[in-house]
From TrEMBL, chain A:
Protein name per its UniProtKB record: ABC transporter permease
A Pfam family per the record: ABC2_membrane_2
Keywords for this protein: Membrane, Transmembrane, Transmembrane helix
Keyword Ion transport: no
Recorded superkingdom: Bacteria
Organism this protein belongs to: Shewanella atlantica
Cellular compartments per GO CC: plasma membrane
From TrEMBL, chain B:
SUPFAM superfamilies: P-loop containing nucleoside triphosphate hydrolases
Organism from which the protein derives: Shewanella atlantica
Signal peptide: none
Name this protein carries in UniProt: ABC transporter ATP-binding protein
Taxonomic classification: Bacteria, Pseudomonadati, Pseudomonadota, Gammaproteobacteria, Alteromonadales
UniProt GO MF annotations: ATP binding; ATP hydrolysis activity
Length: 279, 302
C-alpha cells in the first residue's frame, strides 16, 4: 500500500485486501464458477442427454441466472462500505485526513469493481477456456467476444448495485438496516420489476407498444442487462416476452449507453449523499 | 511565527432548532495540553469536529495553524493527528498494514511506521490481524496512527477509556513527550483523575456552553470548593486560637482559594507551624461543583 501515491489507489488496494481476507473473493468466485460450469456443462441434462449448448443458448442461460446472482453479490460486497466505517469510527478518521470525499468514494468504487472483476473474470474466464479446449464446435473469436461482452455487461450491472449499496450505506445508521434495505432494492429490481415487466409484455395491453417497453426497460438496470445480453446474441433463442426485450429500439450501443447513464446518475447521487452526510 | 495552533472565537453551532454550541471561545498554545471536559452531549465532539474541519460552525471564527474560514479547504495544509473515540480499525488487516495504510494516505515514509511500531511496543504483534489485539494494543495502535505525521495539533477523544492503569500511564507518557516537542494537545475525556496531572488547562462544557476555562488553580479559584489544611495537633491549636477556629470544618481548616496565602502566612508567622498538608481541590471535585453551581464560574471565565 505504501508504494502507491494516489489516495484513490491506496484506498482501492485496502478494499481489495479486506475482501480477500474476509474470503468474499474466494467465496463469490467459487459460487460464480460453480454456476458457470453447471450451466455450461450440465445445463443440457434436463433434456435427457449431455451435450455442449450452442453459444447463443449458453450466453442466454448464463445471463438469465447471473441477473439474480450478480446484484446480490454486489450488495453483499459493498453494503457496509460506509455504514461499517461509520460504526467503527474510521469514516470520521478518514475524513480528518487530507482526502476529499470524492477520493474516498472513487477509491472504494475502484476497489470493489476490481474485486468483482477478479471474481467474475476468474470464474467465467475459466469456463471460456474450458470450452475452448473441449468444445470443438465453438469458434474461438466468437466465444471470446461473447464471454468478454458477458463479463463487461455483468460488471456494469454489478457496478449499478454497488452504487445502490453506497447510497443506502451512506444513508443508514446501522449495518443491519443497510442490508435489509438493499435486499428490498434487490427484491424490487430483480424480482418484482422484472416480473411486472414480463407480465405487461405478455398481457397484450392496448397501451403497451414497443415505445413503452423501451421506457420500461430503461428504467431498470436488470432489464437493461437482459436486453444487452439478448441483443448481443441477436435474440438467441429468446421466445415470448424475452424476444420483445431483445427487440428494443435502443440497439446494443444505446442499451450500453443507458446502463452507463444509470451508473453516472447513481455515482452523482452517491457523491451528493456523501457530501451532505452529517457527521 | 509563534501563531496559536488552535484558536476558536465565539463559536456557535445550530442544527435546526437545536443549539449544539453557544458562544464557545478558547485557544490552545504549542506545547500545551487542554483537557476537554463535560457531560455526554455537552458539545465536546462538535468542538473536535470543528477543529478537524468536518463541520462548519454557524457563527464565530476558527483559526487553526493560521488557517481561517472553511477548514475543509485548508486541512490539506494542516498537520493534524486525531484519534476518534472507541475507534475500531480494520479487523482483517494486521497492525503493520493498518499503520502503513494511514501512513500512505498521509504520505508518511514507511520507516516512520517501523519506528512507531517499535516505540509503541507492538513489534511482536505487527503481523497479527487486529481481531487478535487487546483493547490496550488497539489503543496504542490508534495513538501511533494519530502521531504518524508528527503533528502540530493532536486531538484525542477518550484515549484511555477501558484501559488498565499501566496502559493509560503509557499513553499519557507519549502525550507528554509530544507536548514537550511543541505539539498542541486536546484530550476529550471523562477520566478526570487521569488527565488532571497531565493537563495545562481544562475547558469544561455543559449543554453547548463553556462553563469554565483555565488552569487547575484558576478553576479552583472559580469554584466554591475550599482548600483543606491539616497539621499535627490541629485540634488543640483550634481550641486556643480564635482565628483558626473560624476555618475549622470537618476536622481540618478549610479556606477559600483567595484566603489560602493569608492562612499559610498566618500559620508560619503567628503559629510557627511549618509542617502542614494542603489538600487542593481535585479536578473531579471542581468539575462536579461547577456542574452544580455554574454561575459561580462566570467570573472565572472573564
Amino acid at each position: 500500500m505504501n508504494k502507491l501515491t494516489s489516495p484513490v489507489l491506496i484506498i482501492a488496494a485496502k478494499e481489495i485486501c479486506d475482501c480477500s481476507r474476509n474470503h468474499w473473493m474466494g467465496f463469490m468466485g467459487s459460487i460464480f464458477l460453480l454456476l458457470s460450469l453447471s450451466v455450461t456443462f450440465a445445463g443440457s441434462a434436463v433434456t435427457g442427454s449431455l451435450y455442449l449448448p450452442d453459444l447463443a443458448s449458453l450466453m442466454s442461460s448464463l445471463s438469465t441466472i447471473s441477473v439474480f446472482i450478480i446484484p446480490l453479490a454486489a450488495i453483499l460486497l459493498s453494503y457496509d462500505s460506509f455504514v461499517g466505517e461509520d460504526e467503527s469510527g474510521t469514516l470520521l478518521l478518514l475524513l480528518s485526513y487530507p482526502l476529499t470525499r470524492s477520493q474516498i468514494l472513487c477509491g472504494k468504487l475502484l476497489g470493489h469493481m476490481t474485486v468483482m472483476l477478479l471474481a467474475t473474470g476468474f470464474s467465467f474466464g475459466l469456463t471460456a477456456i474450458l470450452l475452448l479446449l473441449i468444445g470443438e464446435q465453438y469458434q474461438a473469436s466468437e466465444l471470446i467476444a461473447a464471454f468478454a461482452q458477458f463479463l463487461l455487461s455483468s460488471n456494469l450491472l454489478a457496478l449499478t448495485f454497488i452504487l445502490f449499496s453506497y447510497i443506502v450505506s451512506l444513508k443508514s445508521t446501522e449495518k443491519a438496516k443497510a442490508v435489509g434495505c438493499l435486499l428490498l432494492v434487490w427484491f424490487l429490481f430483480v424480482l418484482i420489476y422484472d416480473l411486472l415487466l414480463l407480465t405487461i409484455l405478455v398481457s397484450d395491453l392496448s397501451f403497451v407498444n414497443q415505445y413503452v417497453v423501451n421506457i420500461l426497460i430503461a428504467l431498470s438496470p436488470t432489464d437493461l442487462y437482459r436486453a444487452i445480453n439478448l441483443m448481443a446474441i441477436d435474440g438467441g433463442d429468446a421466445r415470448g416476452s424475452l424476444a420483445m426485450i431483445s427487440q428494443s429500439d435502443w440497439g446494443l450501443a444505446g442499451t450500453y449507453a443507458l446502463m452507463l447513464s444509470w451508473i453516472a446518475v447513481l455515482s452523482w447521487i452517491s457523491h451528493g449523499v456523501f457530501k451532505r452526510k452529517r457527521l | 511565527m509563534n501563531e496559536i495552533p488552535i484558536k476558536l472565537t465565539d463559536i456557535g453551532l445550530k442544527y435546526d432548532d437545536f443549539t449544539a454550541l453557544d458562544g464557545v471561545s478558547f485557544e490552545v498554545e504549542s506545547g500545551q495540553t487542554m483537557a476537554l471536559l463535560g457531560h455526554n452531549g455537552a458539545g465536546k465532539s462538535s468542538l473536535i469536529k470543528i477543529i478537524l474541519g468536518l463541520i462548519t460552525p454557524s457563527s464565530g471564527s476558527v483559526n487553526i495553524m493560521g488557517s481561517q474560514g472553511k477548514l475543509s479547504h485548508h486541512k490539506h495544509k494542516i498537520n493534524l493527528g486525531y484519534l476518534p473515540e472507541d475507534v475500531s480499525f480494520y479487523d482483517k488487516l494486521t497492525g503493520r498494514e493498518v499503520l502503513n495504510y494511514f501512513a500512505a494516505l498521509k504520505r508518511v515514509r514507511p520507516t516512520r511506521v517501523a519506528d512507531l511500531i517499535d516505540e509503541f511496543g507492538l513489534g511482536y504483534a505487527q503481523d497479527r490481524q487486529l481481531k487478535t489485539y487487546s483493547k490496550g494494543m488497539k489503543q496504542r495502535l490508534g495513538v501511533a496512527q494519530a502521531i504518524l505525521s508528527e503533528p502540530g495539533i493532536l486531538l484525542l477523544d477518550e484515549p484511555t477509556v477501558g484501559l488498565d492503569p499501566q496502559a493509560s500511564k503509557f499513553l499519557y507518557g507519549k502525550i507528554n513527550q509530544l507536548k514537550q516537542a511543541g505539539c498542541a494537545v486536546v484530550v476529550s475525556t471523562h477520566e478526570l483523575s487521569l488527565v488532571e496531572s497531565h493537563m495545562d488547562t481544562a475547558l469544561i462544557m455543559s449543554k453547548g456552553r463553556r462553563l469554565a476555562l483555565g488552569t487547575s488553580s484558576e478553576l479552583s479559584a472559580g469554584s466554591s470548593i475550599k482548600t483543606g489544611i491539616e497539621f499535627a495537633e490541629l485540634a488543640s491549636w483550634v481550641e486556643r486560637d480564635h482565628y483558626l477556629r473560624r476555618f475549622f470544618i470537618d476536622g481540618r481548616l478549610q479556606v477559600e482559594s483567595a484566603q489560602k496565602q493569608q492562612m499559610i502566612k498566618y500559620l508560619v508567622s503567628q503559629c510557627q507551624i511549618f509542617d502542614f498538608t494542603l489538600h487542593k481541590p481535585k479536578l473531579e471535585d471542581i468539575y462536579h461543583d461547577l456542574m452544580m453551581h455554574p454561575l459561580v464560574d462566570q467570573s472565572a471565565q472573564q
